[in-house]
Specification:
The complex is a heterodimer. By secondary structure, chain A is mainly alpha-helical. Chain A contains 13 helices and two strands. Chain A has a two-stranded antiparallel ribbon. Chain A starts with about 30 loop residues before the first helix and ends with a helix. Chain B is an all-alpha fold. Chain B has a domain of about 160 residues: MetI-like fold, CATH 1.10.3720. Chain B is built from 13 helices and no strands. The chains are: A mainly alpha, B mainly alpha. The interface between A and B is large, with 100 and 101 residues.
Chain lengths: ~300, ~260
């Protein structure tokens, strides 16, 4: 996905960004390599090593009382393959896939309309979106649970307007959780789509309009296909991002809506079973990498 | 044509309302006189704002979060800058791998990275230390500075660099006189992004030092669980106000759109 000449998504769209064009020669000797040693060492020590340790832990044997001893056994993985955890995995994938789809379906037309506004309007919107981005997940969860509550929620407004008979509690529930996840990922989705959308040549849409296509039709048949790569990258980013959400399932969902992230944290922090938590994490990573691979493959094939 | 404009306005308006709804709630809660929130709200007061600064525990959490965010942002930029510069300056085979490594923390589900940090800091015996959270955040968020600074480097014209070299500038002089001024706004925005995200981050701080170093998001979640207080809404309002000011200032000098990827 990195060999495109299409406008590069930037900022948070890390998934789709190329290393910048390197110009000139290769570095010679230790002196010229010096600048890269520090970042390489930091990433190695504080990212690759922790990952390796986690992988090793997932094979460790757990001893009663929160301790564990080095071993190589697959018990932790076997334990994962019980109905409770497998259904949690299925639910997490379903929930986050749905959240990613809804979020991008909202973000794409929005970003497109934004990109066609004046610079002033764009700036105002982006400052607003960046401010929303700085709302902590805890606050988002709390606010929406208030907005969806019986005592102080939106349903009271409907009653006041005579649209509903009595106030209702809409949270915790599946739709509430889904909406919360869409809310936290919408700013990210917009920021990732933005560069590709504003760099889209305006001739493309003008041609379609000249030929008599309606705005909605132009958007669906011309804009969406030419932004395909950015859309796929955003879908993946939002999917993975929501898969990692730990607070929202607890604040807006019921216990049966708890995702694998909640279970991993629960095992690691409250059950002191780090080996099992590590096994779930490795499993989750493999599944998300697999899904990302399939998505990329399908979108490549769709192009040909 | 008119219906089109109307439809566009309606759609944008709905998105704005959706995004603004939680802001309205926290603002309402923070100004509500009573502890409990009811509809319609009763009484208006700034008491909870005073209460925040009178409460030592909240002030301590603010100090923790602020310290972590500033140092993590500095660390993040300090790792990303040499890496981005090196990849921009030299044609190296392992460039892609290094770049991918720098981007990886951001494209994995955060809980996995958090668990990796948990086992790492436990293994080296620094579990629960504030330094551990700072380093973890610095690594976790380094994708943003890396991508952002790379974008800034791309915007520097190669001709200018060539001209400086022809005039006899060595690597260091080129960096100081051409590269650094060119990427300065990107460095500032990278710092701002990491700062804002770090100050609101929950899962990594919680897993690495959640029981010893109470940050603002952890304190808010605890207060939701074990004793609700409107002070949490006050903090949220202040945080949004700070971000709004920071990004608003970046927008004033007209660079925000370019930093976000517009040509």
């Amino acid at each position: 996905m990195t060999t495109t000449r299409e406008p590069q998504p930037t900022m948070t769209s890390a998934a789709a960004v190329l290393p910048p064009d390197a110009a000139g020669d290769g570095p010679r000797g230790l002196r010229q390599h010096l600048p890269v040693l520090y970042p390489a060492a930091m990433l190695l020590v504080f990212f690759v090593v922790p990952f390796g340790i986690m992988l090793a832990f997932s094979f460790f044997h757990r001893v009663q009382g929160g301790f564990y001893e080095p071993a190589f056994e697959l018990d932790n993985y076997a334990r994962f393959l019980t109905p409770l955890f497998v259904s949690a995995l299925g639910f997490s994938i379903l929930l986050c896939g749905l959240a990613a789809t809804v979020c991008v379906a909202l973000a794409l037309p929005f970003t497109w309309l934004l990109g066609r506004s004046s610079v002033r309007v764009q700036t105002a919107w982006l400052v607003f979106i960046l401010s929303v981005l700085s709302l902590s997940e805890v606050i988002v969860g709390f606010s929406w649970s208030v907005l969806l509550s019986r005592s102080a929620g939106v349903s009271n407004l409907l009653v006041a307007l005579g649209l509903a008979a009595e106030p209702a509690a809409w949270s915790p529930s599946f739709p509430a959780l889904l909406m919360g996840l869409c809310y936290v990922s919408l700013p990210y989705a917009v920021l990732v789509l933005y560069p590709s959308v504003v760099r889209l040549p305006s001739e493309i849409t003008e041609a379609a309009r000249t030929l008599g296509a309606s705005p909605v039709r132009t958007f669906l048949t011309v804009v969406v296909p030419s932004l395909r790569r950015a859309v796929v990258a955003t879908l993946i980013l939002v999917f993975v991002f929501t898969l990692g959400s730990y607070l929202l399932p607890q604040l807006l969902g019921q216990p049966q809506h708890w995702t694998l992230s909640v279970l991993i944290t629960d095992q690691a922090v409250y059950q002191s079973n780090v080996p099992f938590a590590a096994a779930i994490a490795v499993f989750l990573m493999l599944v998300s990498l697999g899904l990302i691979g399939i998505t990329l493959l399908l979108s490549e094939r769709g192009r040909a | 044509m008119r219906g089109e404009v109307l439809l566009k306005r309606l759609f944008m308006g709905l998105v704005a309302a959706f995004l603004a709804a939680p802001l309205v709630v926290v603002a309402g809660v923070s100004l509500n006189e009573k502890r409990r929130l009811l509809f319609p709200p009763e009484g208006l007061s700034l008491n909870w704002y005073a209460a925040l600064f009178a409460d030592e525990k909240w002030v301590a959490a603010l100090r923790n979060s602020g310290t972590i965010a500033v140092l993590a942002a500095l660390l993040s930029v300090s790792i990303a800058l040499p890496l981005a510069w090196f990849l921009w300056r030299y044609r190296v085979r392992y460039a892609r791998a290094l770049f991918a490594l720098g981007v990886a923390p951001f494209i994995l589900p955060p809980v996995i990275t958090a668990l990796g940090f948990l086992v790492f800091w436990t293994s080296v015996g620094l579990y629960g230390a504030m330094g551990a959270t700072i380093v973890s955040h610095g690594i976790f968020f380094m994708t943003l500075p890396l991508v952002n600074i790379s974008l800034g480097l791309e915007s520097i014209e190669r001709e200018t660099v060539e001209a400086a070299r022809t005039l006899g500038a060595d690597e260091r002089a080129v960096f100081r006189t051409v590269v650094l001024p060119g990427i300065l706004p990107y460095l500032v925005s990278s710092f701002a992004f990491v700062f804002v995200l770090s100050i609101n981050e929950y899962i990594v701080s919680y897993m690495v030092s959640g029981f010893t170093v109470e940050t603002i998001p952890i304190k808010i979640f605890n207060s939701l669980r074990y004793g609700y207080t409107p002070i949490m809404a006050v903090v949220a309002v202040l945080f949004v106000a700070v971000s709004f000011t920071v990004f608003g200032l970046m927008a004033r000098n007209g660079r925000l759109l370019r930093i976000l990827g517009r040509h």
